[in-house]
Exocyst complex component 3-like 1 (Cyprinus carpio carpio), 760 residues
Amino acid sequence: MLSFIKEGVKPCSFCPEVWPELERAECLARGAALKWASGVFCRPEHLERLGQYRKRESQRTASIHSRLKSVVQSYLEGVDWGLGQLREARAELREVSHDLHKADLESRKNSEEVTTLETLREISVSHRQLLAAVSNLPRLYKVRSMVLETERLVESRRLLEAHARLMELERWQDEVLQQLTSEDEELVRNYFSGVGRLVDALAKELWAVVGSGLSLACQNPTLFVSAVRIVEREEALDQMFLEERRSTSGQNTPMPPGRPRCWRDRFFKVMEEAVSARFRSVSYLHTRGPGLASHLSALQHCIMGDLSTVRHFLEQCVPSHYRLTRAYLRFCHQFLQNHLGLVSGWELEGGEIFAVLNWVLHIYNSSEMMGEPALVVELDIDDMGPLISQEGLEQLQNKYVQKVRKSVSEWMHKALEVELTDWQRDQEPDIDHEGCYHTSLPTIIAQMLEENARVALMISESLRDQTIQMGLYEMENLLSRFRDAIIVFGKEHRRDSAINSNKFYLHYLLACINNCIILKTSTESLQQQLCSFPSNRYSRISLGPLAALDRAVRKACRLVMDHLLFELQPHLQELLSRTWLDQGEVTQNMCGVLERHCEFYNRVRQPCRQRLKEECQWLTVVEYVRTLMQKRVVCRNSDERNQLAQRMTQDAQQLRDHLQSMVNPTALITALADIISLKDPNMLILMISELVSKYPDISEEHVSVLMDVRGDVPKDVRKSVIDFLEQSAPPLPQGYRPIFTEILVPSSRIQFCLPTAKCT
């Protein structure tokens, strides 16, 4: 192995010198071999296997040498084959170069001979042109006469004959252009310029016939049929020339002059223009203003009449693939879209907006127009779109609501002015079938709002809801002004009561209450219509009028009670006085006033009728007790106390007999009389405790006045009662209406001396 390593690798015989890479590889191999040998033969006993290692490495080296030789041999064989191919290619290139040289020499000889044929070619072209001219001379001589004759046919509307002559002239023109060169094309076009004029003249007459097709169909459809046949001929010629051009696309074949004409598309375009012109003439001068509804009605009758003519006459005059009814429907729809878009932009009044909305949403799609079964199959609304967009409809509805709101506001203002004038009349208000007072205000308002809601519902539920919402809002404003007017009415009555009193003041206050009750019924009816709609977005607005009605009713009732108090005031001045003790006329007079007022309250609708009677009784008792708190009478002995208590009990009974109601506040007068009539002052604390249990709002001041009226309560008893009241102070039970809270105890007059004077 060591000898093998020392021998190394011998350089190849064909390498003149050792390559640097080879030297580096040899060094690396030596280093690797030494490293391997030093690891294997690190001990002397390992040298016994040296022969085995040498034999194995010799075999490996021989194998490597044989593989290298085979690789080099195959490489050399490939190089030899490649050199052979290069030699063959060089020989073939030499032959090709020789042949090209011979061809170049031959072409130079022939080019000199080709120049002699140019003259012959020019003569041939001239001969061909002359031959074409000679063959077309008869036609060329007849061109001008045929043009004039065709013009006469067009003027006399013999359209089929004129079109046949025109087709013949165009055929001659095309044949001449094909036989001549492009240099003579302008000359030919100028000569046949009359053909172009004929095309324009024929087209003009043709479209005039198509535009008046509706009138011709009812009289003599022959002319319209001729126009359609000409259109179909031209469409067939256009298709033929387009097919020829596509089949010869590689040769760049030009189209004949004026082709393609697309007269079928022009046919439908003229029909569309005729529809627009025809409908614009329908009452167009009277469209704006009150005539808008008549204009829409005239449009409806005109469209349906024309559609009947198209379906029964024109549809039979055209090929089935024209679908003329569908096309006419589309033209009508597009015109109406543009026309109604223009109309929607005008400053329309409420009635005009209603007419537009009703026509668009109901009449147009009804069985009277496009909803007719025979037309439904032809019309695709979803594809053409609505007459007015959803946004446009919302804008129109908002405009309608604003116009109606303005009208409603003006009518409410006028109705309120009439109402205020009625209040000054020298006669009582009107009486309905139930015997209740009323005026014209609620009837006008209710009918106006109900009518507006009914009319809006003819358009849509959403418009009905917007109109009701607007009406409730305006009613709330009206009721606010109505309440202010009631307040002013009451102030003027109090100011002028001493000079020129309005003897029907109470009557009209009661009529105002009835008016509010009627308006409440109308408001609730409108609210029910809103509540039937799924959305409850109007709940906040719909509660406003009810609250305003309640405020107005409360104010009117308050004025009624003020008027009652005003008439009771002279009698209250004499109440609980010495004269009252001696005479019984005061209470009887008070009962007469109360009875007369209660008779007036019967002119009020429920539940306000009962409410007024209860308030009347409540007011009477409150004023009675307030008079007692003024200490006009202070008892000096038991006889006076018994007389006072007995008289108070009689008054309570009289008031109870004249004021029949579910509430009985006169029991308070009886309870106070029992306290005054009590013989033993020491039992006052029991009576006061019972009174406090029934009337927990009674204060120490009220009880102190009662003890003062008795005139015999010792100081220790008074102190015990006051201490009891201070310690008890029970809370007010639920549903209890305070009565003593409304009664103020007059402050006691304290005598004092001025600092500069001496006390007497």
